[in-house]
Amino acid sequence: MADDEEKKRKQQEIERKRAEVRARMEEASKAKKAKKGFMTPERKKKLRLLLRKKAAEELKKEQERKAAERRRIIEERCGKPKLIDDANEGNIKQVCTQYHKRIGELENQKYDLEKEVEFRDFQIADLNSQVNDLRGKFVKPTLKKVSKYENKFAKLQKKAAEFNFRNQLKVVKKKEFTLEEEDKEPKKSEKAEWQKK
Predict the structure, then answer these.
(1) pTM here?
(2) Are 92 and 84 in contact (CB under 8 A)?
(3) Is 2 helix (H, G, I), strand (E, B) or coil?
């Protein structure tokens, strides 16, 4: 009997230890759950899916809004498209003249705007220079790098070209090109008749 009681006691002790270990493990798992808080992995997945769906819907709405805005601007600038499939020659001419007038007006507006932008740029540059003058700050222009040997080489080439050009000229001594008066005048080496006497 003593053996039986001892066995029972050992068995009870083992079970008690197991219960303690289970209790500790349960407490640890509860602590882990408490640390994780509200967001479990499944909830995170669902939240990601919902966010993706919401982002896709927003993107689609934005694209539709942009397309509608684009169509509105095109209609405003170009007018509604004309139906010319079943139109006769007179209607087509009328549509062409309307478009031609509209293009002329738009070109005038474009030219005016370009000139206004140029004028504003000029004013801005002028005001910037005035401000720099008042502050005493002057913008130093960036200098280009120039090789000093390049200029010397260009001068030498020019001199060489002039020298070659003069060497290639031929001296012409034909009487075809002389004036008739020069032929009639006596040469300096020849003496005049009154000097011979």
Answers:
(1) 0.34
(2) yes
(3) helix
